[in-house]
Amino acid sequence: MSTGPEDAQQADTDRVLTVPNVISLIRLLLVPVVGYLILTGEYVPAFVVLVVAGVSDWLDGVIARRFHQTSKLGKLLDPMADRLFIFVTLVGLCVQGVVPWWLLIATATKDLLVTACLPFMFRRGYPGFPVHVAGKSGTFALMYAFPLLLLAQVPGVVGEVAFVLGWASAIWGVFLYWCAGAIYLHQFWQVMTGAVDRGSVPPNPSVAA
């Protein structure tokens, strides 16, 4: 029986208690923390929490790949944590008047449309949408933008620079977010019209970014 790296990685796919999964769970626990800090006007601590969450997001991916600890649970927890951070942070920033509500509507609408497609995909035997680089890049840009927009509330040159960079990242992130949404909706249309077969879908389910 082979015990090469590929077999080791495959053996890890059903594991629950892994270091990356623990990191993702900790990140999920930080979601209400950052929401509370933003709503109470504690922008600098909220900035620190978002930076820690961003670093942990990068770290759990590195560990999962380096030590073959990828898992089905991890593939669900990681994007779930990203979505919750984006949603909760945006709601807090909108309530505080830091960003306009259209930014929340623009990101939430894309997620709702893609999520609404999933039950129809499941019924046809598809595990979901393969994660696209546009979606991952858009999510990264938004996660990068929010700490900067929080830092923009600090008076002085630091706040002004953070404001410009934060909005540049936010606009670019929304654009990429919707590029990914268009790709996923096109894939959904292909599935519903029978333009693709099940063999073209990756065997492991993933949540579209």
From TrEMBL:
Keyword terms of this UniProt record: Lipid biosynthesis, Lipid metabolism, Membrane, Phospholipid biosynthesis, Phospholipid metabolism, Transferase, Transmembrane, Transmembrane helix
Pfam families per the UniProt record, alphabetical: CDP-OH_P_transf
Keyword Transcription: no
Subcellular location: Membrane
Cited InterPro entries: CDP-alcohol_PTase-I (IPR050324), CDP-OH_P_trans (IPR000462), CDP-OH_PTrfase_TM_dom (IPR043130), CDP_ALCOHOL_P_TRANSF_CS (IPR048254), Phosphatidylglycerol_P_synth (IPR004570)
Location (main, coarse): membrane
Membrane topology type: Multi-pass membrane protein
Keyword Transferase: yes
Family statement drawn from the similarity comment of this UniProt entry: Belongs to the CDP-alcohol phosphatidyltransferase class-I family.
Name this protein carries in UniProt: CDP-alcohol phosphatidyltransferase family protein
Organism, scientific name: Occultella glacieicola
